[in-house]
Specification:
16 helices; single chain; mainly alpha; antiport; two-stranded antiparallel sheet
Amino acid sequence: MPLLIAQLASSAYGIVDLMLIGHLNGEHAMAVFGVSWNIFNTIQIGFTGILIALIPAISSAHGAGNRQEVAETVRQGIWLALALSLPICLLLVFPDLFLSLAGQRGQATAEIRLFLLWLAVSVPPTLLFRVVSGYASALLKTRKILMASVAGLIVKIPLSFVLVQGGLGHAGLGVVGCAISTAVVTWVLLAVGFGTVLTDTVHGGREALTRFSRPRAATLSTLMRQGLPIGASFFFDYSVLTLIGLLVARGGQIQAAAHGVAASVSYLCYLVPMSLANVASAMVGQSLGRHDGEAAGRVGRTAVTLTLSISFVIGLVLVSGGDLIARLYTSDASVADYAARLIVVVGVYHLFDAIFTVCSGVLRAYRRTLVPTVILGIALWGIGLAGGAIANRWSGASQTALVFWWALAAAAIVAAAGIFEYQRRVVQDSGRPQAATS
């Protein structure tokens, strides 16, 4: 639960900004915000996902009682985070390809460029905080991370309001103020996160940050070998949503804004199975580190059952309350009405996406990361994107977003069925971590 609340607080930054823009600045600002965040997520999510490989690596070392390996893995994770920050920042500073795909011109393009430039400032602290969060998640010690994330949200809300609307003697900066506030808060959050790790004298946290290690090719290679498929799966997921968002943007600001609301709701709901997946990965990893395959299998089965139950309830809420949820995001009636229709489909999509997410988390502890990525890639790109594009040819431009979301729901069903069967076979056949990625 602390991990879920921490992730909700951190991810609420964009949601709070979207609600602020939706109620105060109208369709144009919402469209700029939605396109900007779609581009940002597509660029950074794959690189950031690589760092999730730290959770099973640290949890396995902790389960084996190897404190020195825990500390060394954290230090190598810091090097990896710094290296991954560079390409993300370069792509954010030079986003021409993404802007051309979105068909953006004039004032909107200038605003999007400035928005992305400020988000680039937030990238290094965001990735470094992922290392801190991965360390805490692997040890199942997430309360301090929760406190830091909630504190960051408390600072973020008034700061965004002042920067967007103006106040304290300063004129409002409009939608770009959201990006500036995000950059400021992420650096503050990193400082607090490092402080919490320094206070850990039991599990190797202080040792990780007070001793220096050069980049070690063997450790970094292992992390990359396990992390690249994870990052690729995140990229497939978010890039498909982004590409759909860019295609939807050609249909007008109402569809673009509504798709942004639906994507935001989907991501907010996704945090529940993602948190459970990370906890399951840590617990299964610790069990495997102790060479207790039976306990690992039991934890994995429990995680899937719990996630399915919770996500079913979430899906019901989305299907029955789409209109109310949409109006929390925006006071624009046209955007809210269309977004409500999309949120109903998000409810169906979420249930099956949750199954895929938690199974992926369990499989990461077994060092099985490639097959889940292949399953997801085929489903999302083959059914979600390509299938949606084909269906959209007969639906008309006014239904583009709705058609694509139904295609995504179909893709999620296929992916969930595939990975559930794969997890069953892996857990059945394997009682300890596998060295190879498969």
